[in-house]
Amino acid sequence: MVKTAELLESIRGRLLTEPFIRIHASEEEYESLADEWDLKIEYHNEEIIATIGQVTPNHSRLSFIIGYILNKFYESFENDFIVLESGACIHIPSLKSYYQPDMTIINGEIQLKKGSTTEILNPYIVVEVLSKSTQDFDMSEKLVNYKAIETIKQIIFIAQDKPWISTYTRTNEPNVWINTDYDSLDNVAIIDNLTVSLRDIYKKIF
């Protein structure tokens, strides 16, 4: 408990001057801190990845808009899909990784890590709204690990400082993904089987 308190104090202290930090830690130490409400804490490659929990207005609005659009689309499938907002934890057992995307879509029933009520094993789509401090990590190391999840069909990155969306869609060929970038308000992005105008996603932002 003392070590956990010291680790948390170290994280909070560093976040006063650093927007994105990495600290070597065990999986058990991560789990002891995962519920800190004012921090976004993830776990990757034996490191805690921490950022301040607060987000910009653009980030908040984009998360809301994409959530509204996808929830409305998947409602037509009755009980087949579940849309989860930011804070849902994705666990990759083989990599001992834990991530908190800005949105998660589940196809079917939610499967949880044994003994956990929060750590999800079977995401179908994950959405990350990019922040300046985390986008390099999100689109490199985290992207690679997301691709290792067998249930994932699509990984979506959304920029908040310009109209830009990048999707990675799994094909029927092993380890083959299609990457498509959309960089204009006039573009129409394909998310699962839904076509969405970037103008609608970025409404009242650009």
Notable traits:
206 residues, alpha+beta, tt1808, chain A, six-stranded mixed beta sheet, three-stranded antiparallel beta sheet, 5 helices, 33% strand
Brief account:
The chain is of the alpha+beta class and 206 residues long. It contains 5 helices and 14 strands.
Q: How would you describe the overall organization of this protein?
A:
Helix content is 28%, strand content 33%. It has 206 residues and is an alpha+beta fold. It has two domains: 2-52, no CATH class; 57-201, Alpha-Beta Complex (tt1808, chain A). Strands 4-7-9-10-11-12 form a six-stranded mixed β-sheet, sandwiched between helices. Strands 1-3-2 form a three-stranded antiparallel β-sheet, covered by helices on one side.
Strand fraction band? 25-35%
Number of helices: 5
Helix coverage percent: 25-40%
* Strand line-up across the major sheet: 4-7-9-10-11-12
Q: What oligomeric state best describes the polypeptide chains here?
A: single chain
Shape field:
globular
CATH level-four homologous superfamily name of the largest domain? tt1808, chain A
Q: In CATH, what is the class of the largest domain?
A: Alpha Beta
